[in-house]
């Protein structure tokens, strides 16, 4: 989408009012993978979870339309929501995983607004579960999961025991579009509502955002007429 | 009805060998006395801001060409309005100073529509890029010119709706309205003509009109003259489209694609005609001839049999797909078609269609260093076997490289003419071939342009196709809406 990102006048963050919100693309891939596993009858039930204000229920509905069975909306709003980061979310996920007796947690490798790439890893650490991050291929084999991971050097294949945390990378799958009949069916699926306190999670942030700025505007280039001019200018500004 | 025979104009006289070289020196074509620009440019800047106006040579060159073979014809200045009010204000300035106005969306046209033949002002509309007023239950949405078809479908992905018209490029939707674009699934979902409900248009004098009334979006209407479809396909010659209201469709529950090979062109085309006559709501039915399949095999390292081929796609519920496929298979097998190669999931379907989507590049790869030009005729379905067979004979007789790919479900096919721009003889043979092909289509009750538009190169053919009286009416409309002939002069008529 072509929304222009604007920094708030007080430099405390970016403007989110009136901006269209949709499911994080890597999380779409995670939902797709979970639904595929269920279609292959390798898992019994898929629960879609989202933390945030009321609007996130729309995103949960999309996940339900893609094939998840039920949703959980962990309500976080106002200052708590603005300060919410991977640590708080991973505590919520860890608490929910225990409560629901989950055998797999699948999420996107990172959110495209903050690019943290921490929630999956922190969740695994809090639960002391194995993690298969940057997954481009997932195969369930009995009580174990084989994960092909995208790493800088190429592809790494690991086998981990369940319960486990997986994070989805770009090439894991191509998410399906929600179709109208499925969107209509999704309206009847249940979304449970709870607060972080219900899960014994404190939302206090250990991180304080000091200031948010736009990247500096690119300065115009300077044209020179001759090679000598170019060399002189590069010398003058210390490049050579 | 009789009419005086006009001397045959060579339709592609401007496609000489030297014109394929990208324009390096731009002759500034002043349409104002030198003092005039000094008043006009600051007036533009006061409307669109300092950054909203450019006289830079590279910028003007970028806005003087599209994806056709026509040479670059840069405007004198490029402006970037941010709202319909700015478009109107700019148009008023141009109107006052008699400056040509050339609307520019994504520059992905195939008929030279954005060339500024008489210089003037290019209105680049890409900064007006909002999706407005989505009405999910009513299946309609309005978009500004900077929104492309893939951009809209990405925006809509959570809603279960999509806009199916899919020309090759990721084109501006308002630009697609301006050229009455079409795509591979027109056979089921229609072209822009059937899917534009309303337009907001700025006329040459700056007036802003709504072709179906402001904000109106009923699914059908019989109110007044059909202004919406007057502007659809007008290629920027009647006004600047600043907003289009589009008809949306539900995303198909399931899709399945298949490839089928035939012993002859006749068999493939006969199958197409029969499938449609049976009433199968087939979503895509694309034809590739043996030359095209061979090119695709080489380019994509595939191994489809080198023979006339149909690529098919079916949309619907799982149950209806079974039925559609069964009926279609009976027909193709009765015509000697091979067993189907199937694809059901998104990834396999993607690979199957990649061969078809890469057709342009596969054709170019047949003869590296050459350029390609696509023909675009469209005829009634029953005439399709005849015209394709005659066209292939013509290609072979004249030693031309022209792999054929087409939307045979609409009776529309493209010969991708691959030619060496430095071989004057070949260039002439291609020109003459395309003239013969267009006339062949006209003689079979068809059109010289199914989806690409008239642009710069088919104006003489349009006259033959319409006849002088219809052209006079078109000219009358043009004169009424744009008496000073400022809107994209030199195109269409």
TrEMBL record, chain A:
It comes from the Eukaryota. GO terms for cellular component: electron transfer flavoprotein complex; mitochondrial matrix. Keywords: Electron transport, Mitochondrion, Transport. InterPro entries: ET-Flavoprotein_bsu_CS, ETF_a/b_N, ETF_b, ETF_beta_N, Rossmann-like_a/b/a_fold. SUPFAM superfamilies: Adenine nucleotide alpha hydrolases-like (SSF52402). It is found in: Mitochondrion matrix. Pfam families: ETF. GO terms for molecular function: electron transfer activity. GO terms for biological process: amino acid catabolic process; fatty acid beta-oxidation using acyl-CoA dehydrogenase. Gene3D superfamilies: HUPs. Residues 11-203 form the Electron transfer flavoprotein alpha/beta-subunit N-terminal domain. Belongs to the ETF beta-subunit/FixA family. The electron transfer flavoprotein serves as a specific electron acceptor for several dehydrogenases, including five acyl-CoA dehydrogenases, glutaryl-CoA and sarcosine dehydrogenase. It transfers the electrons to the main mitochondrial respiratory chain via ETF-ubiquinone oxidoreductase (ETF dehydrogenase). Heterodimer composed of ETFA and ETFB. Identified in a complex that contains ETFA, ETFB and ETFRF1. Interacts with ACADM. This is Electron transfer flavoprotein subunit beta.
UniProtKB/TrEMBL annotation, chain B:
Its EC number is 1.1.2.4. Residues 70-251 form the FAD-binding PCMH-type domain. Keywords: Acetylation, FAD, Flavoprotein, Mitochondrion, Oxidoreductase, Transit peptide. InterPro entries: FAD-bd_oxidored_4_C, FAD-bd_PCMH, FAD-bd_PCMH-like_sf, FAD-bd_PCMH_sub2, FAD-linked_Oxase-like_C, Oxid_FAD_bind_N, Vanillyl_alc_oxidase_C-sub2. GO terms for biological process: lactate catabolic process. GO terms for molecular function: D-lactate dehydrogenase (cytochrome) activity; D-lactate dehydrogenase (NAD+) activity; FAD binding. Its cofactor is FAD. Involved in D-lactate, but not L-lactate catabolic process. Belongs to the FAD-binding oxidoreductase/transferase type 4 family. This is Probable D-lactate dehydrogenase, mitochondrial.
């Amino acid at each position: 989408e072509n929304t222009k990102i604007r920094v708030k006048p007080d430099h405390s963050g970016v403007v989110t009012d009136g901006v269209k919100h949709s499911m994080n693309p890597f999380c779409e891939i995670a939902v797709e993978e979970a639904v595929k596993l269920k279609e292959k009858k390798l898992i019994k039930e898929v629960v879609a979870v989202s933390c945030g204000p009321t609007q996130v229920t729309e995103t949960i509905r999309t996940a339900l339309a893609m094939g998840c069975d039920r949703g959980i909306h962990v309500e976080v709003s106002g200052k708590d929501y603005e300060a919410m980061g991977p640590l708080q979310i991973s505590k919520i996920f860890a608490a929910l995983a225990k409560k629901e007796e989950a055998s797999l947690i699948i999420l996107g490798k990172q959110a495209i607004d903050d690019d943290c790439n921490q929630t999956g890893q922190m969740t695994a650490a809090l639960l002391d579960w194995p993690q298969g991050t940057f997954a481009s291929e997932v195969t369930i084999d009995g009580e174990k999961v084989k994960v092909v991971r995208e790493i800088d050097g190429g592809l790494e294949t690991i086998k981990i025991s369940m319960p486990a945390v997986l994070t989805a990378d770009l090439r894991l799958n191509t998410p399906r579009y929600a179709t109208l009949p499925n969107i209509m069916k999704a309206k009847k699926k249940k979304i449970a509502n709870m607060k972080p306190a219900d899960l014994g999670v404190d939302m206090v942030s250990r991180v304080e955002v000091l200031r948010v700025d736009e990247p500096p505007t690119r300065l115009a280039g300077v044209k020179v007429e001759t090679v000598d001019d170019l060399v002189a200018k590069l010398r003058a500004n210390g490049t050579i | 009805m009789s009419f005086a025979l006009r001397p045959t104009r060579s339709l592609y006289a401007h496609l000489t060998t030297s014109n394929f070289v990208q324009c390096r020196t731009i002759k500034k074509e002043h349409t104002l006395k030198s003092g005039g620009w000094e008043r006009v440019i600051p007036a533009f800047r006061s409307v669109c801001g300092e950054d909203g106006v450019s006289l830079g040579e590279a910028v003007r060159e970028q806005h003087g060409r599209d994806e056709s073979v026509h040479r670059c014809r840069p405007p004198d200045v490029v402006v970037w309005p941010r709202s319909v009010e700015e478009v109107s204000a700019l148009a008023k300035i141009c109107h006052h100073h008699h400056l040509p106005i050339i609307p520019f969306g994504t520059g992905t046209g195939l008929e030279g529509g954005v060339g500024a033949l008489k210089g003037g002002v290019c209105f680049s509309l890409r900064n007006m890029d909002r999706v407005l007023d989505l009405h999910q239950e009513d299946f309609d949405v309005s978009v500004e010119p900077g929104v492309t078809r893939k951009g809209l479908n990405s925006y809509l992905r959570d809603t279960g709706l999509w806009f199916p018209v899919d020309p090759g490029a990721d084109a501006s939707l308002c630009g697609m309205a301006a050229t009455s674009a079409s795509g591979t699934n027109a056979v089921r979902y229609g072209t822009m003509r059937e899917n534009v409900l309303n337009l907001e248009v700025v006329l040459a004098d700056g007036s802003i009109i709504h072709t179906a009334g402001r904000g109106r979006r009923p699914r059908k209407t019989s109110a007044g003259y059909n202004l919406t479809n007057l502007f659809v396909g007008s290629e920027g010659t009647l006004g600047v489209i600043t907003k289009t209201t589009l008809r949306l469709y539900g995303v198909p529950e399931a899709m399945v694609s298949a490839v089928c090979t035939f012993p002859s062109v006749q068999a493939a085309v006969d199958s197409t005609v029969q499938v449609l006559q049976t009433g199968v709501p087939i979503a895509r039915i694309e034809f590739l001839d043996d030359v095209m399949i061979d090119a695709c095999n080489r380019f994509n390292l595939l191994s489809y049999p080198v023979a006339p081929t149909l690529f098919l796609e079916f949309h619907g519920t799982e149950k209806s797909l079974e039925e559609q496929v069964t009926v279609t298979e009976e027909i193709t097998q009765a015509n000697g078609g091979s067993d189907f190669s199937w694809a059901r999931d998104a990834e396999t379907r993607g690979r199957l269609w990649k061969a078809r989507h890469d057709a342009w590049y596969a054709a170019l790869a047949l003869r590296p260093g050459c350029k390609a030009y696509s023909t675009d005729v469209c005829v009634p379905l029953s005439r399709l076997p005849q015209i394709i067979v005659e066209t292939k004979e013509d290609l072979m007789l004249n030693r031309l490289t022209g792999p054929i790919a087409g939307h045979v479900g609409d009776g529309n096919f493209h010969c991708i003419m691959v030619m060496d721009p430095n071989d004057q003889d070949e260039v002439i043979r291609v020109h003459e071939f395309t003239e013969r092909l267009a006339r062949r289509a006209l003689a079979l009750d068809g059109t010289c342009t199914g989806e690409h538009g008239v642009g710069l190169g088919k104006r003489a053919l349009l006259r033959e196709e319409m006849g002088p009286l219809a052209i006079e009416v078109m000219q009358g409309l043009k004169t009424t809406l744009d008496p000073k002939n400022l809107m994209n002069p030199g195109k269409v008529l």
